[in-house]
Amino acid sequence: MGVDYSQKAKEIKHDIITTLYKAGGSFNGGSMSCADIIAVLFHGFMRFKPDNDERDMFFLSKGHCSSALYCGLVSVGLIDKSELNTYGKDGSKMSVHPKKNSYPGVEASTGSLGHGLALATGSALAAKIMNSDVHSFVLMGDGECNEGSVWENAMFASKNCLGNLTVIVDRNRLQGCGRDCDILNMGDIGQKFNTFGFDVLNIDGHNHAQIEEALKYATQKRDKPVAIIAETVKGKGVSFMEDRLEWHYKSTTKEQYEQAMEELR
Ligand SMILES: Cc1ncc(C[n+]2csc(CCOP(=O)(O)OP(=O)(O)O)c2C)c(N)n1
């Protein structure tokens, strides 16, 4: 029987909201917008094999949304769920911005936006040189695509024919301080990646079947990197957070937490 992505995504979203509530943490919105993507990628595609160099590599370039990464790793059994209670606490290894090797599946320290694609590109190039079938995935924010380093690496990846590299852009159209179109309009991000030599797929980033199809396509043998532009809603799943800028940073009150839990049930 196939994986029930809806159930996995639901559990991940529940854990994200609970983790951030308990920690008084930020980034509910951006963590919820990518939870469906993480559920399908982690349960359907990533070969984690934590003790093995041949594992696939995942880079959460939008590192501020680490709760989605940690809850995804809990969901696939690589982190004990009780660890989520330590998120963001002094001395905890479950830092708000992920730290390399803090847990199996945390491949890099991220949070300074614009660097994840470089890491994923390097990892994909190394795999190609070593003739390995390791696949590198990077999840980026659309606001993050304002960074020039993204486009340097896009050129480098296509120049090196890195068909073992998949970029996923969480296209929720909100950044930390405003709408992307008001800050630095990226326009058609897919078209830009295409111009930089990528094969591009535009999907609904909350539709599990579409995410699965896109990842199937991206992980077939090929000589071009793939960019999946996943149209999403910031705060997806919690009505009062959906497409609301303030939920980039805001943390939930007890009442808001309880309402969110009710809605996610
Ligand atoms: C280089 C860098 N500049 C600024 C920040 C501060 N910052 C954290 S989140 C964020 C907004 C990111 O927007 P987006 O990439 O669209 O992420 P999402 O909306 O999916 O959370 C910013 C500017 C940062 N982490 N790194």
List the domain count as a whole number.
1
Which assembly state applies to the chains in this document? single chain
CATH third-tier fold name: Rossmann fold
Order of helices and strands: HHHEHHEHEHHEHEH
Give the distinct bound molecules.
thiamine diphosphate
Q: By CATH's scheme, which homologous superfamily applies? A: Thiamin diphosphate (ThDP)-binding fold, Pyr/PP domains
What count of helical segments does DSSP give?
A: 10
Q: Which class in CATH terms?
A: Alpha Beta
Structural class per helix/strand content? Answer: alpha/beta
Our Rg estimate from Cα atoms comes to: 17 Å
Helix content: 25-40%
- Backbone shape: globular
Task: Describe the 3D structure.
Helix 1 crosses helix 3, helix 1 crosses helix 4 and helix 3 packs across helix 9. The chain has a single domain, classed as Thiamin diphosphate (ThDP)-binding fold, Pyr/PP domains (Rossmann fold, 3-Layer(aba) Sandwich), CATH 3.40.50.970. Strands 1-2-3-5-4 form a five-stranded parallel β-sheet, with helices on both faces. The two termini are 24 Å apart. The model has no long low-confidence stretch (mean pLDDT 97). The chain is an alpha/beta fold and 265 residues long. The chain is built from ten helices and five strands. Helix content is 39%, strand content 11%. The chain is globular. Thiamine diphosphate binds next to helix 2.
